[in-house]
Amino acid sequence: MIRFTERKGLLKPGGTIIEGTSGNTGMGLALVATVRGYKMVFTITDKQSKEKVDLLKGFGAEVIVCPTAVEPDDPRSYYSVAKKLAREIPNSFYPNQYDNAMNPEAHYQTTGPEIWEDSEGKITHFVCGMGTGGTISGVGRFLKEKNPQIKVIGVDPIGSLYYEYVKTGKVGRAHTYVVEGIGEDIFPSTMHFDVLDDVVQVTDRECFLVARNLAKGEGIFTGGSGGGCVSAALELARTLPADGLVVAFLPDTGMRYLSKVYSDAWMRERGYLDSEVPLCAADVVSVKHRAGKVRELIIVRPYQTVFHALHTMQQQDISQLPVFEDTTIVGTIYEDQILNMALQGKDLRKLVIREVMSKPLPQVPRDAPVERITHLLSHESPAVFVVMGEGRYEILTKYDLMGTIAELVEQVR
Fold first, then answer.
1. Architecture of 281-412 per CATH?
2. What is the fold of 104-269?
3. Do 335 and 316 contact (CB within 8 A), yes or no?
4. Where are the alpha helices (DSSP H) in 45-192?
5. Residue 339: its pLDDT value, please?
6. The whole model's pTM is what?
7. Cβ distance 271 to 365 under 8 Å?
8. Tens digit of pLDDT for each residue in 240-284?
9. Exposed site from 144, 175, 306, 395, fewest CB < 10 Å?
10. Domain spanning 2-95, CATH architecture
11. How far is the C-alpha of 359 from the C-alpha of 323, rounded, in Å?
């Protein structure tokens, strides 16, 4: 990407490279910038590991951390911030890996031939994570030119847009996932869907657990996206004849995830490791029901007024309300928010909830371990939703957890 830019005269000596990255492309650009004497500014989301941020800073880059849970066109997103900086900083260049044809072209010219030669042309299936699409698009095109019978399988985390689009042709709604480096909430032009034969979905949990198992069992130290790729490849391999040859692409090293994937405490807090306390969300809900503390879920709609939300809170003696659009949780409105708006002199009867609501309360499945709920309540939210199935939700707070613990103590007595 940089060579092409230099040949076009778009990047001059002493210039600044600006890019939004989840890690690998930023590292590559940092290496090139250091050798060629360019300054660097990278935008990165707050879900990326501390190791990645520190690594980029180690090469002398300025790193700007942006929120993950915002829409791509939000001015705070790492896409938008990178574009803004590119407009404002003189003699700068924004490679934009999501819309740069040299991204898949690099893999077509290098990675694809390497895989073909190292497998002696015997490869039958290529399994690869889908992020910008550069790797899978470039490698997939090269391999299919060599042998059209080769199958190219993409790996996509639950929460990304790709899987639903490939399977149904519909553009769904992206939601937050934890694994880094794969999946997207946009459709980059560098993702060439025509090379795909299939897409497999993976969960955050299987990505992380398979990565850890690779380290312990095979001596392969990769990140969560590599774990997801191997998980998909193993499932595929079980269906193939003995002469099938699957190549799974592992894009980075576990050294970048020591504080996350390879930290037992981090994994346990988020429910990815088996719990030391055999309690899950459904157990806490059951205790709440037995205590007779369950009440009908009170909700508001995005089109209703803030005054309506305030009136509902006063009637029900609650301090926050979930905002539902049909059966989907789209936001939350808090008592403190409304108080601040009133003190600012805003007309609560004219303000619509959609314009002021905060992000939705976190959601966990009914089998989520209690450590996961405790972590969310301690660090992120005053309450969490438990997805019970069939469109039914329960809401849990610290008070509910304390009630469950109290019941356990009584049982021990």
1. Roll (3.10)
2. Rossmann fold (3.40.50)
3. no
4. 50-58, 78-88, 102-106, 112-118, 134-146, 162-168
5. 93
6. 0.71
7. no
8. 999 999 999 999 999 999 999 999 988 987 878 876 667 788 888
9. 175
10. 3-Layer(aba) Sandwich (3.40)
11. 9
